[in-house]
Amino acid sequence: MAKTAGLVGLVGIGATGCSTDEVLRFGWPVAVTPQGEQMRELWTWSVIAALVVGVIVWGLILWSVAFHRKKSEELPRQTAYNLPLELVLIVVPTVIVAVLFYFTAVTQNDVLKKTGNTDVTVDVIAFQWNWEFQYPEHKTSDGQTVSTLGTSTEIPLLVVPAGQSIRFNLKSTDVIHSFFVPEFHFKRDVFPEAKKNNQDDAFEITSIDRPGAFVGRCAELCGSYHSVMNFEVRALPKADWDKYINLREQTNDKTGKAYTAAEALAEVNCPDWCSPLATTTTPFNTDRTAREASGSGNK
């Protein structure tokens, strides 16, 4: 029985085509930050612990069904107390909860820890239904803060350096939104400026482990266009980031204005993955007259 169950399990895992790493992530995306990897490890071991408990419970149920089913009309021997079993049922769950609480608290403290001394600071401003990313430590030639503003014609790009610590300061200009980059494994609600209930409007990541492009989303239902309130992340190597942010501080001779995010990325000449325009999503049309009610399209 046990061999058959084990064989079925191995065949099931093999049939999925998943690697060991994918299996142990239990559906979570690959983390690109140390904090994300810490949370992934907590998730993995929590699920394994739950599966172990589940297997034991399932085994006891099947054992009871197989060996303690009704065999005659004779009433089985009645047992009033079983002190050792009762102690086990109290002690073991208490130990499991205590261990999970400990590792959860340790991970939470590490993930939420703020040093106040990061390499880059980004102010994230959410609004219905787009994003603005400001770099308060960098100014344009006319003294304005370097910023990237999403519009109904362009998806905003959050450009940051890989391998450096980053602080994100979050705020909303209207309703509650939520800043979420799955590869960061960190989702933080973005509240209007008035703080309530000890709201924490900032978080830090130690570094982004590798250059790459990632998709960010609003993960809090915030109105009509919530589902298309996306942005994209470009994590550049340090040298390319320096070129990018230096360009953002300068005036583009072709336009006579400060470089936009797309213009600066185009000048950096980084690999294909850091396209100067969004590649995974498209801007949404806010013109209500351009849309039709469901079911009213042309036949």
UniProtKB/TrEMBL annotation:
<keyword id="KW-0472">Membrane</keyword>
<feature type="domain" description="Cytochrome oxidase subunit II copper A binding">
    <location>
        <begin position="117"/>
        <end position="247"/>
    </location>
</feature>
<keyword id="KW-0249">Electron transport</keyword>
<keyword id="KW-1133">Transmembrane helix</keyword>
<keyword id="KW-0812">Transmembrane</keyword>
<keyword id="KW-1278">Translocase</keyword>
<dbReference type="InterPro" id="IPR008972">
    <property type="entry name" value="Cupredoxin"/>
</dbReference>
<keyword id="KW-0679">Respiratory chain</keyword>
<comment type="similarity">
    <text>Belongs to the cytochrome c oxidase subunit 2 family.</text>
</comment>
<dbReference type="InterPro" id="IPR002429">
    <property type="entry name" value="CcO_II-like_C"/>
</dbReference>
<dbReference type="GO" id="GO:0016491">
    <property type="term" value="F:oxidoreductase activity"/>
</dbReference>
<dbReference type="GO" id="GO:0042773">
    <property type="term" value="P:ATP synthesis coupled electron transport"/>
</dbReference>
<dbReference type="InterPro" id="IPR011759">
    <property type="entry name" value="Cyt_c_oxidase_su2_TM_dom"/>
</dbReference>
<dbReference type="GO" id="GO:0004129">
    <property type="term" value="F:cytochrome-c oxidase activity"/>
</dbReference>
<comment type="function">
    <text>Subunits I and II form the functional core of the enzyme complex. Electrons originating in cytochrome c are transferred via heme a and Cu(A) to the binuclear center formed by heme a3 and Cu(B).</text>
</comment>
<protein>
    <recommendedName>
        <fullName>Cytochrome c oxidase subunit 2</fullName>
        <ecNumber>7.1.1.9</ecNumber>
    </recommendedName>
</protein>
<dbReference type="Pfam" id="PF00116">
    <property type="entry name" value="COX2"/>
</dbReference>
<dbReference type="GO" id="GO:0005507">
    <property type="term" value="F:copper ion binding"/>
</dbReference>
<keyword id="KW-0479">Metal-binding</keyword>
<dbReference type="InterPro" id="IPR001505">
    <property type="entry name" value="Copper_CuA"/>
</dbReference>
<feature type="transmembrane region" description="Helical">
    <location>
        <begin position="87"/>
        <end position="105"/>
    </location>
</feature>
<dbReference type="GO" id="GO:0005886">
    <property type="term" value="C:plasma membrane"/>
</dbReference>
<keyword id="KW-0813">Transport</keyword>
<dbReference type="Pfam" id="PF02790">
    <property type="entry name" value="COX2_TM"/>
</dbReference>
<feature type="transmembrane region" description="Helical">
    <location>
        <begin position="44"/>
        <end position="66"/>
    </location>
</feature>
<dbReference type="InterPro" id="IPR045187">
    <property type="entry name" value="CcO_II"/>
</dbReference>
<dbReference type="InterPro" id="IPR036257">
    <property type="entry name" value="Cyt_c_oxidase_su2_TM_sf"/>
</dbReference>
<keyword id="KW-0560">Oxidoreductase</keyword>
<keyword id="KW-0186">Copper</keyword>
<dbReference type="InterPro" id="IPR014222">
    <property type="entry name" value="Cyt_c_oxidase_su2"/>
</dbReference>
